[in-house]
Specification:
single chain; about 50 residues; mainly alpha; 2 helices; flat
Length: about 50
């Protein structure tokens, strides 16, 4: 679970410079995050690699 927290932190850091008014990029990142959350919420996922 620790790797998952680390992965989230690095994802936020990667896109910290995205302009909050760039709606197409923000919407894309939200959709991507929701898909990843659904994937990682699966009971079959135990841990993620960095």
């Amino acid at each position: 679970m620790r790797n998952l927290t680390f992965k989230h932190m690095t994802e936020f850091d990667k896109y910290i410079t995205v302009d909050k008014r760039d709606f197409s990029v923000v919407e894309h990142l939200l959709r991507k995050g929701r898909r990843q959350l659904e994937t990682y919420s699966s009971p079959s996922i135990k841990d993620v690699s960095r």
